[in-house]
Specification:
Layout: E1 18-23, H1 28-40, E2 45-51, H2 55-63, E3 69-73, H3 85-88, H4 105-108, E4 112-117, H5 122-132, E5 137-141, H6 165-172, H7 182-199, E6 205-210, H8 214-225, E7 244-248, H9 261-273, H10 280-300, H11 309-325, H12 333-344, H13 346-356, H14 363-373, H15 386-389, E8 434-437, E9 441-443, E10 449-454, H16 474-482, E11 490-491, H17 493-516, E12 520-523, H18 534-539, E13 547-550, E14 560-564, E15 576-580, E16 589-594, E17 601-603, E18 606-617, H19 638-649, E19 654-659, H20 665-673, E20 677-682, H21 688-694, E21 696-700
Parallel strand pairs: 1-6, 2-5, 2-6, 4-10, 7-8, 14-19, 19-20
Antiparallel strand pairs: 3-4, 3-7, 8-9, 9-10, 11-21, 12-13, 14-18, 15-16, 16-18, 17-18, 18-21
Helix pairs in contact: 1-5, 7-8, 9-10, 10-13, 11-12, 12-13
Length: about 725
Amino acid sequence: MNRGPTDVPPLLRLDDHTTILPIIHGSGQFAWLTRRFLLEHRFDCVAVSLPESFQESVEQAVLDLPKPSIVIQKPAPTFESTYDASAEFQGSYGDTDPDDFDDDDGLDEIASSFVPIDPCQGVIMAIRAAMGEHIPRAFIDLETNHFQPFSTVMPDPYAVRHVHCEKFAAAVLPSIPRPSDDQTRERMAYMAARLVRLSQTYDQTLLVTSVLDWPWIREAHRLLREGKGRDVDSFEHDNVSVPQTYSVDPKTLLFLFGELPFITALYERARRELEEDANLQIDGVKELLIAAKQSYMNEFKNRARRVTPLLLSKCLKYIRNLSLVHRRMTPDMVTIVTACQQILGDQYALHVAETASQYRLERSVYTSGLEKADHRPETDSSDIPLHEQFDENSPPSFDDDAKENPFNKESSLHGADDFPDWPSPESDLPGTDDVTLGIDQGRLPDGEIVSLVSRLPGPPLTWQTLSLQRRPTKDERTRWEYGWNPYSQCSYPPEDERIEMLRNRVCERAQAIMGQDLARTEKFTTSVKDGIDIRDTLRHWYEKQIYVRVIPPSRGKLDACLMLFDSPADPRDYPWRTTWFAEHEWESTLAFFASDFTKEMVGPGIGMGTYGGAMFLYPPVPIPDIWMDRRLNFTETLEERLIAAACLHSRGRQIALMSSLPPGAGWRRLARRFKKQLVHVPMTSFSDEEVQQLRMVHVLNGSEVRSYAAEFIRKA
């Protein structure tokens, strides 16, 4: 049951008939607060700080939610000239284009103002809730042709989750600057006068506006009550144009929403499914990491790093610490991606950045939203004239036939199936109304690039850069595959060094394991040898003697090393099987099976494969290609062929084998056939990050590619 007007805190009341709710624009927490405030109190009218010219367009766009859109008002001409410069000077300057005399400088200097139809905007939420409760709405801002925003740095909006809104507003009051420009002061005085006029019609009116406007509207309202203010009729409105509603390119929603598009979609999902959404601003970060993990695993499959709950908890802790360093309670996108990059690598961080930019809602949600907003019966398009079918004011189609539209551009982001089939702004289809947004700029459907300024400005943004290499497009990969020369191939030297270092470490671990089999214990005399043997010391405690451990030096030499990264290996996943010979004296003879590097081009002349298994012979020796050697045709699997080749060409009796599981009876029997012994080194002895990074092998199309390969090769 709604509470009465007396329950409103006195600090938020202008008089007995008017209440003002100060919010921070673009905050999901304040949008949640606005909806709760409207449902907890009774109001006869909801006023917002937008001009009347926006009312029809904004309310119609709100009905289309959760489909986001933007309402843009272009600057109206401030003068009319009948002077035709092209006719006056025609022919005087030879071939000079008459269009060069068009003087549009006056309009180019004025930015177009817009209203973001963002579900996490407090003003949009107020309009949406008022329309749902059938409460009248009033747009009470002054009509301005050249809008000047009024914004400053504000505290983190998450504080309002634990602090009442009136206490939050009172706490930030000393830091709110007085408006320095005449237009902003005029707007505050006009809104206060409109509130006085509304109080004569409605018993209880709620104004939802920015916390920066709140003290000056309150001051202007007090002057009006004292008879010192200006009446509504004394203000002069600018001549403005009619606002136009456009849909937004899904790839640029990050420039429209106040919250991350992924978090905004979670708010809409909670609204649809009646879930608790009070803590979504924080819990949404956890869901973002989990969704990015799924996308990351889908792309890299078995060569992906293990994203364990422990690593995710460390990542969340890193995000919290970075947020506190930046004096914030909630993380921004740069903080989230930076923490993921430091903990889980570049590839996972790239998926986090892509997932955070996606507005993930099912197509059925958009379709049902449009059906509720448009109660017109369905009409066969064959009955509509052709020129009306491509009307610019007609809404975009979201039916199933849109998937087969040849003009639609396929999205390059992962999880594109969660997006509606919005027409691309680069499409040549007439009637498309997508706007591509950027930093304070936008590209209209006709290709015109205009400057944009928000009517609901949030805190100023700080733009930063991230050192993440982008994923190549499909066209780039096709072009690189077409230009590949199959007769010129070489390896990437930094990867050769790292894989050789891993071979050395595996051999050292194997030799240590070989020596442990010959370990013995003896009584302590003058040296603790290789350490005190606690077990034997306790066993002979009655002798009052200390026993020490003696590990003699290992016998034999390890010149063969096996690394089985994926076992059992599917031959269909690893069609590339070859033997490489050493280019330098510190390199090994290498035989391996890997994925097809020509199917994954990461740069011009750079292909990437994934090791399934590898055999190293050091010192390097010339051997026949093990995949063509008929002596090894008795083997059945890829792993058995590598083991048999290592046993055939190894000069020592032991062979180091790194794998996730110990060798089975079949592999040991195969080694005994050549009178060899497999020394198992668990793969868990090495970090998962290092192993997954070393599994990536890059093939360069010639030695000249080595000069720029580092710019395209990404870390796991």
